[in-house]
Design a protein that fits this description.
mainly alpha
């Protein structure tokens, strides 16, 4: 509520990257020069994509968004060792229900609910997020922590493509440039080194 969407997204993605890449480096992963360039290119693409909407963020909202980013990074790192992605995701969502219900009860005075909003929330949370995490958990064991962190930078591009396809939003030169930087940077990070010979 207190942060502009672009500022919040940048804080969130920054916290995810720092958490996952920091863990990867702490456990012995090393990025070669090409991968560092790719990571910087992808991060620059995210900034270019979000920059026009950025504003000086309030501290309380920023701290909450940074906390969410760290939690997302930890959740992804823990998912590397998870078993069946679908059952793990379903179990995590079920364990989150009491927490969400308690928070909703605390904030009951500020809630306005309608049928459409309810179904949008269910579709976004249970269906889209649930399926997304199941797919992500399936792919995650094959990725290093640093690679997984960088791949997650594609989310703003995917969201922008969804806006174009489903909401009729325009394709702008800034979107094309930022998308090329993000996806090109990801490719540099995850590309396997070719061996001579």
């Amino acid at each position: 509520m207190s942060l502009p969407a672009a500022t919040g997204a940048l804080l969130l993605f920054g916290a995810v990257q720092v958490t996952m890449i920091g863990y990867g480096v702490w456990t012995g992963e090393r990025l070669v020069k090409r991968q560092l360039v790719g990571l910087m290119l992808a991060l620059a693409g995210v900034v270019v994509l979000l920059l026009p909407g950025l504003a000086a963020p309030p501290l309380s909202g920023s701290v909450l968004m940074l906390g969410a980013g760290v939690a997302w990074g930890v959740y992804s790192l823990r998912g590397k060792g998870a078993g069946d992605p679908t059952s793990v995701t379903a179990g995590n969502f079920l364990r989150a229900v009491p927490i969400a219900a308690a928070l909703s009860a605390v904030m009951l005075n500020g809630i306005s609910a309608d049928t459409a909003g309810f179904w949008y929330a269910v579709s976004s949370g249970a269906l889209a997020s649930g399926i997304g995490y199941a797919i992500w958990y399936t792919a995650l064991p094959a990725l290093k922590a640093t690679h997984a962190a960088t791949v997650q930078l594609s989310v703003p591009v995917i969201a922008a493509l969804g806006g174009i396809l489903f909401l009729g939003e325009p394709i702008t030169p800034r979107l094309l440039l930022a998308s090329a930087a993000i996806l090109g940077g990801i490719a540099l990070v995850i590309q396997k080194r070719r061996h001579a010979g």
